[in-house]
Amino acid sequence: MEVSKILEDIGLTRGESRVYLATLSLGRTTVGKIIEKSEISASKIYIILDKLIKKGLVNISVEDSKKKYSATNPHHLLDFLDREKDSIDKKKEAIQSILPQLSGIQSSVADRSIVEFSKGRWGYEVLYRETISDAKPKSENFVLANDGVSFKFQSLWSGFHGLLQEKEISSRIMYTHDCWYNKDKSIHRREERTNYHPKVLPKKFSKLPCISVLGDKTLISGVDELDNSCTLIIRDVNLTREFVKILEIIESLAVVPEGYEEK
């Protein structure tokens, strides 16, 4: 991956990344040379340099009545990330304190749509967390886990199961063959799960949607040939009951995985 792309991924803007790298390569230098090297316009350069100074990534000095700029030690990028993390943690705490108010505002305006559609990992995670949050304690999460979604979002499952355990919600899951036997054990951590009842479908059943039923909600997810994911949520108790019937038919074809001992 390009250095500039990594700098942008950690929180620098494209302009900040270019100016930082230019300053890093030039040593102590004038603003004119930074403009020439970074190809950033004169109208923006001072704003960007000021932001980099505040982030601790660039220093300013005066020599012969001229301002000169130099990049600080690259190790300060780690300090920058630590400060960003502290800032994010404080923002999270602030949001947590007003979540009840925000939820009250939302519920007072209108009910959520019966059906909604989202794309990507973030959309899937938000909808799945909603189903867990709204579910009653000691209820049951009934799932058909397919290859595409399960592998694409593999790092999410352990965290989801932790949330289910907090509410003592049992997991009744049917896996496609490859989904069960080919997943990374260091990530899925199935051996740590409780209230967990897995079954595996015959190998011929591989092109199935991922379906999750919990409470009065059903999630249907899939991954297309371009590896794009999409998720549909249905918030209707009657439709959810019908999906349970479908899952029970599919479950009748599955067996307890070889060598698995239920806890």
Describe the structure.
With 263 residues, the chain is an alpha+beta fold. It has 2 domains: 3-74, Arc Repressor Mutant, subunit A (Orthogonal Bundle), CATH 1.10.10; 111-251, Endonuclease, Chain A (2-Layer Sandwich), CATH 3.30.870. It is 51% helix and 20% strand. It contains 11 helices and 9 strands. The protein has helices at residues 3-9, 14-26, 31-38, 42-54, 76-109, 120-134, 147-152, 154-166, 177-181, 185-188, 237-251, and strands at residues 58-63, 66-71, 115-119, 140-145, 170-175, 196-200, 210-214, 217-223, 229-235. Strands 3-9-8-7-4-5-6 form a 7-stranded mixed β-sheet, with helices on both faces. Strand 8 (217-223) and strand 9 (229-235) form a beta hairpin. Helix 1 (3-9) crosses helix 2 and helix 2 packs across helix 3. The longest helix has 34 residues, at 76-109. It starts with a helix and ends in a 12-residue tail after the last helix.
Summarize, please:
The protein has 263 residues and is α+β, with helices and mostly antiparallel strands.
Give keywords.
263 residues; alpha+beta; Arc Repressor Mutant, subunit A; Endonuclease, Chain A; 2 domains; seven-stranded mixed sheet; two-stranded antiparallel ribbon; 11 helices
Number of strands: 9
Describe the biggest sheet?
A: 7 strands, mixed
CATH secondary-structure class of the largest domain:
Alpha Beta
CATH homologous superfamily (4th level) name of the largest domain: Endonuclease Chain A
Strand order of the largest sheet: 3-9-8-7-4-5-6
Helix content: 40-55%
Residue stretches low in confidence (pLDDT < 50, at least 5 long) are none
Number of domains: 2
Give the overall form.
elongated
Order of helices and strands: HHHHEEHEHEHHEHHEEEEH
CATH fold annotation of the largest domain: Endonuclease, Chain A
Mean pLDDT: 86
How much of the sequence lies in strands comes to: 15-25%
Question: Which radius of gyration do the C-alpha atoms yield?
Answer: 26 Å
| Secondary structure category | alpha+beta
Quickly give the CATH architecture of the largest domain.
Answer: 2-Layer Sandwich
Please count the helical segments.
11
Between the first and last Cα atoms, what is the distance in angstroms?
43 Å
